[in-house]
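2024-03-11 09:14:02 INFO worker-7 job=invfold-0412 stage=load source=structure_tokens
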């Protein structure tokens, strides 16, 4: 699912992604069933859009703190975002990046592995978050 603001500069990129995933990848990686619709949605009136925005915000804030981009963040705020991230992280089904096979995709796999953002191994202990 692609959810984005109504901005013309993104349309070409989305079309390129759809073209690639439908026709330019090996058969076992193709998106075969796709429903395309595009219409502006007021996020204030759509709870699922608001929820996805909230989840993305919590993950982003936690990783900004974790990676040192927000060094002056109060401890109570750090703990709040760590608890949010923990709640989200517990519900993630898979943790490994699925490598794509095919011609010239080793570079893509390597790039994605290098740019992924993950917290430290002991982040729960650092923020005193329970693993439940």
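2024-03-11 09:14:09 INFO worker-7 stage=emit residues=132
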């Amino acid at each position: 699912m692609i959810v984005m603001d109504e901005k013309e500069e993104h349309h070409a990129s989305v079309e390129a992604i759809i073209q690639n995933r439908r026709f330019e990848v090996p058969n076992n990686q193709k998106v075969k069933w796709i429903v395309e619709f595009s219409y502006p949605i007021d996020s204030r009136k759509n709870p699922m859009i608001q929820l996805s925005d909230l989840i993305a915000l919590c993950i982003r804030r936690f990783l900004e703190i974790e990676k040192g981009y927000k060094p002056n963040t109060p401890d109570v705020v750090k703990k709040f975002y760590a608890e949010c991230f923990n709640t989200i992280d517990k519900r993630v089904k898979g943790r490994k990046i699925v490598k794509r096979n095919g011609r010239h995709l080793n570079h893509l796999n390597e790039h994605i592995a290098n740019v992924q953002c993950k917290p430290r191994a002991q982040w729960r202990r650092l923020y005193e978050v329970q693993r439940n």
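2024-03-11 09:14:09 INFO worker-7 stage=report msg="Residues 42-132 form one domain."
2024-03-11 09:14:10 INFO worker-7 job finished
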